[in-house]
Amino acid sequence: MDLNTLATELRRDDRYQRKGQVARTIVHTPDLRVVLIALAREHTITEHHAGATVTVHCLSGRLRLRLPDRHVDLSAGNLLAMGANLSHDVSAVEDSVFVLTLGAS
């Protein structure tokens, strides 16, 4: 699977052009989900939480995650792991693409 090609497709997607955000699930099994997400500069995925352990792996751009006790900045190549049920939001400081991996909940 070529994530760079998929990222380019996401950025060309009409939903990304209109809303500044688009996602594509690239792996979905009973115990694992992997989602590729493109988030345009200054757009935010509002506060939420996942019922499972997650990782956020920034492929391009720069992200800022707001956690209950701190902010975490991720640039290309950085990965953050978060425990289940941890509230957070995700903002794009720059046009960004990241991989969200969710374990079984």
From TrEMBL:
Coiled coil: none annotated. CDD domains: cupin_HP0902-like. Gene3D superfamilies: Jelly Rolls. It comes from the Bacteria. InterPro entries: RmlC-like_jellyroll (IPR014710), RmlC_Cupin_sf (IPR011051). SUPFAM superfamilies: RmlC-like cupins. This is Cupin domain-containing protein. The lineage of its organism: Bacteria, Deltaproteobacteria, Bradymonadales, Lujinxingiaceae, Lujinxingia.
